[in-house]
Amino acid sequence: MADQASESRDEYILERDWRALARLHSRHFMFKIVRGYLLHPKVTLEPHAKIADIGTGSCIWPIDLLQELPFAFSVDAIDVSLEQCPTRSWLPNNINLIIHDAYQPSPEHMIGKYDLVHVQNFLCVWRAEKSKDLVRNLLALLKPGGFIQWSEQDPAANRVITAPGVSCSTQATEDILAVLNKPRQAISFEWVSQLGQTLGRHAALAAFDRFESVGKHQMLWDVQALAACEELASNLKRNAETDNEVEQAERLHTSTKRASIEMRSGVGIYSELVVAVAQKEPTLRSWG
């Protein structure tokens, strides 16, 4: 476990400090506000349900779920790092913290255990070459009839917009959007738009919803973009191996500050949130 966690952590391109924790919390509530739900209406759970929260981050999703479900349930909050989770003594007894890399096969005692597997915010940890392993591992956690709910921001929809009647420079916002759309050469986001198809090939797709950022929620998305860019710049500078990488980090930091000024004038980054829900069938479909 320790070796897997360390390997995955080295590839993480954002941060795990208090600023990142604040971003994760605000992102959780932004997703909830934009979707209008924490659990998709298609997800049906019974008392004493067993839930896995994959990539739990700050553990905010299972903590918030305590306010949503009127019956007893238990959650295994799973991540390669638990640095951003509350200390265990502050968590209720029905939330259990587990260090595990979802790209690796799960321990036998977790297979077929869960009524719901919840996933979100895998954009910056997606590994295309291991994506089939990831989906297989996630579905293996479910009982027959169990649900997977997966939410992601879709960078393919990203574009710079301006509020009606606004005429000002958008250059800095364009600059940070280019970074957000391709933060590292090896990272690709095309998979998000295909998430419903991917789950539907191996389980019964129950829903694939898409939500827009524009309008009253626009500033929520824009603040997330600025915070992510600050983390990217900080991470890049700390791990820089060349003067060019240091300069890239400083340019991104400067562009982020300038973009924040543009955004206060009515510039924004349009984006979309997708949610896929699928139900595991008694017999898992072929992986061929």
Helix percent reads 25-40%
The total count of strands amounts to 7
- Strand arrangement within the widest β-sheet reads 3-2-1-4-5-7-6
The residue-averaged pLDDT reads: 91
Strand content: 15-25%
Low-confidence stretches: 1-10
Shape: globular
Order of helical and strand elements: HHEHEEEHEHHEHHE
Q: What distance separates the N and C termini?
A: 29 Å
Largest sheet: 7 strands, mixed
Q: Number of helical runs?
A: 8
Gyration radius, rounded: 19 Å
Name the structural class.
alpha/beta
Architecture overview:
There is one protein chain. With 288 residues, the protein is an alpha/beta fold. It is built from eight helices and seven strands. It has helices at 2-10, 18-35, 60-65, 131-140, 171-181, 195-200, 218-238, 243-264, and strands at residues 49-54, 73-79, 95-99, 114-120, 142-162, 204-212, 267-279. Strands 3-2-1-4-5-7-6 form a seven-stranded mixed beta sheet. Helix 3 (60-65) links the parallel strand 1 (49-54) and strand 2 (73-79). It is globular and about 55 Å long. The two termini are 29 Å apart.
Which key terms come to mind for this protein?
288 residues, alpha/beta, seven-stranded mixed sheet, 36% helix, 24% strand, disordered N terminus
